[in-house]
Write a sequence for this structure.
């Protein structure tokens, strides 16, 4: 059985590294809409053509040959019969080499490898109920995430890298960086949340493809209650 493979271009940001191309495989990120949820998928496609000898019934034809079974040693009697095409030579035929007939079937093969990034986690360091203008330290935990899989039996990896941090506060203020320190100038309920921008790398056939996609994930919402306690005034008698 003969097998042939045909390369297909990817759907989005297509790429064919040398190793996969040699195997007849192209891979690509196949669902850009899923990036909003932190999911990145590699889709690999290939066409496989299988060729085999035809198994359909052989056609028949009318054949004439001499009673001795030959076509070149004449006899007084000639036999006429229906025979399968190519099964024997008949009077008037020229010897030819038989050629087998082949039948081809092409199949579309697909494979997919998906990975999903974990969102960042936000924390704060302060008293349970800080006061106005009291410094509050905010920080986020997020690190490189790598997941392994395969495409058509070949090893593959997807890696998520946090590359940017943006803090948003309920009073409209913003901050940048993995950690942020600030205060609120009035009592009441406030909140903070960090949004982390990720870059996606993936590896197929031993070759890494960097910054194949980007997306942003938000952390848990931090609630802060700012309390301004009543102040006591100490009166001092000037006469001592």
């Amino acid at each position: 059985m003969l097998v042939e493979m045909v390369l297909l271009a990817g759907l989005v940001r297509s790429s064919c590294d040398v190793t996969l191309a040699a195997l007849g495989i192209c891979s690509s990120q196949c669902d850009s809409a899923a990036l909003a949820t932190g999911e990145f998928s590699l889709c690999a496609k290939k066409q496989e053509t299988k060729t085999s000898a035809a198994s359909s019934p052989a056609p028949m034809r009318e054949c004439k040959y001499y009673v001795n079974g030959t076509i070149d040693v004449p006899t007084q009697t000639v036999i006429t019969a229906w025979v399968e095409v190519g099964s024997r030579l008949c009077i008037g035929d020229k010897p030819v080499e038989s050629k087998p007939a082949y039948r081809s079937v092409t199949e579309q093969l697909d494979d997919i490898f998906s990975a999903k990034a974990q969102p960042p986690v936000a924390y704060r360091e302060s008293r349970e109920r800080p006061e106005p203008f009291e410094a509050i330290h905010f920080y986020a935990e997020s690190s490189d995430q790598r997941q392994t899989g395969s495409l058509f039996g070949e090893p593959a990896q997807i890696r998520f890298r946090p590359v940017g941090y943006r803090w948003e506060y309920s009073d409209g203020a913003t901050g940048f960086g993995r950690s942020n320190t600030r205060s609120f100038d009035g009592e009441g309920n406030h909140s903070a949340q960090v949004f982390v921008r990720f870059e996606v790398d993936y590896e197929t056939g031993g070759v890494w493809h960097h910054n194949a996609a980007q997306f942003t994930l938000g952390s848990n919402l931090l609630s802060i209650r700012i309390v301004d306690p009543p102040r006591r005034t100490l009166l001092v008698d000037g006469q001592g």
